[in-house]
Amino acid sequence: MSRDPERTWAAHETPTPLEPAVPVRTGPPWTVVVVMSSVILVWGAAFSGIKVLLETLSPGGLTAGRLVISAIVFTVMLPFLGSGKPRREPGDLWRLVVIGLTGAAGYHLAINWGEQYISAGVASLVVATMPVMVAVLAATVLKERLGRTGVLGVLVALAGVTLLVLGSEGGLQARSVIGVLVTLLAPACWAVYTTVSKPLSARYDGVRLNLLGAWLGAVIVLPLGFGDVSRLGSLDGRGWFWLLYLGIFSSAVSYVAYVWALQRWTASGVASFVYLVPVSSLVWAWLLLGEVPAPLSLVGGGAVIAGVILVQRR
Predict the structure, then answer these.
(1) Rounded CA gap, 114 and 97, in Å?
(2) Within 201-294, where are the H helices?
(3) Which range has the worst mean pLDDT, 42-51, 125-134, 183-192?
(4) Fewer beta carbons within 10 angstroms: which end of the chain, N or C?
């Protein structure tokens, strides 16, 4: 019996189960790169605002004001969401509480309080440990792997941040060991926030994921800001601009964008963009304050960018 050539060709072309159904991606979607680059620009400018506001407000008052504003923004955004309510599963409530305690109250209070006792350089270096913490937690909890290229990228980025800090004004100065330890709580809190948010981002949008946490964080921190109520009247136009900027853009809008990126890329990959925050701060200080970066800082900034590229292409 002769064999049907068309059927023979079709059988030959049918992919085996071992062949991938879709191409393997070697980097994040370009939309994630664009969105996270915008987030980094917003967060980089926030450090200037924190410095300005701490001249008038206490760390507790600054954190409370920022969280109250962000919680109001999340609440206003909620009715405009087109998607339906997320599918709730057992354990979601306590995860949302953890997100609020870490990403809202814990992170902001730690970094605002710690910057009273350490230089901006030390703060940048401490915060730059966050992607490493996320990589460890993601490997343990989410079973993500960086690979050799990713690990090399993490090391290059950390070395770049160190060079950037050493070349910055103020350098590595700390008046209190406790200040360093408290600041270290900030990246630890954000690492937990990222790791817990990653699986929830498959069912929750950025607003619903952060809404409960923002109000919970505001309620927790609000007693620390009661003493600053009278100081709000002392804020000038620049002070109010930065307070609104931190609450609306640096907290609410950026948090929604961060969760959006987590929905489309790995937790460790998204977190690695945070290495660029010191670079963004350097650029904003150069443009807004006229602080010309030292050559060593420029070298460090280049190394940070190279490290982030390596992590994304692991």
Answers:
(1) 24
(2) 206-221, 237-245, 254-262, 267-271, 277-289
(3) 125-134
(4) N
